[in-house]
Amino acid sequence: MQSACESKPWKHWRHITKLDPDREISEEDLKIIVESGTDAIMISGTQNVTAENVNHLVSMLSSYDIPKILEPSNPESIIYEGVDYVFVPSVLNADVKWLRDIHVKWIKSDDIRWDMIVPEAYIVLNPSSAVAVLTNANTALSVEDVVAYGIFAERFLRFPIVYIEYSGKFGDISIVRALREALSGASLFYGGGINSAERAAEMLKYADVIVVGNVVYEDMQKFMETVVTGKQQPEW
Fold first, then answer.
1. C-alpha count within 13 angstroms, C-beta hemisphere, residue 74
2. pLDDT (tens digit, 9 = 90+) per residue, 87-144?
3. Quick one: the chain helix, strand, coil %, rounded to 5?
């Protein structure tokens, strides 16, 4: 049986819905999300994420046949039962703790299901976001800086996914385009501020996958528009 890194299921995805374990979601809205056509559900958050609220959200999703990704913000919130993949982020432009140290600590303390693990190289670019504050990220990066980080992740560290994260803010399309042109093998994920069909289409010109989160809790109709747009875009 192939591991997640070997099978690369995300190579056929265009739209991921991110759900925060620390935010309430109704059963009705969850059904709409799962049946919307989104390619996968990502269980992910930065603040107040615990094994308990992760388990609660996973249990709500248990009856649905859709790929379920856990993207943990800390080792204590990692579970394996009820999810298909564990996408583990390393923040490249932050304190070394978030690139190396927290993972070394996790490896020493857990019986890791390596077949489920997919490493992600994060480049965080919204200075006011919770993830930027938590990781002390240097977000004042030029286009050239971001491209260099992306190539470093792909060529040196062999990350299968490079993730540009604006976390609630719509990002600079020129950065996404430049990184798209620089990467040759890694998949390019984009997350941040996608709350309309137009924004989804704009980012999908260059990103392999868009990750849509906040709009789920704000406007379900707008969320649905992002899914439809995502399914209409050709794969890279």
1. 12
2. 999 999 999 999 999 999 999 887 899 999 999 999 999 999 999 999 999 999 999 9
3. 45, 20, 40
What residue segments make up the domains of the chain, in order of their start? 12-232
Two structure tokens written together for 160: 């299968």
**Band of pLDDT at residue 19, cut at 50, 70 and 90:** very high
Stated pTM of the model: 0.94
Write the DSSP string, 158-196: --SEEEEE-TTS---HHHHHHHHHH-SSSEEEEES---S
**Nearest residue to 57 (alpha-carbon basis) of 48, 212, 4, 200:** 48
What region, left, alpha or beta, does residue 128 occupy, with left being phi > 0 and alpha being psi -120 to 50 degrees?
A: alpha
- For 12-232, CATH number? 3.20.20.390
Helix (H, G, I), strand (E, B) or coil at 89: strand
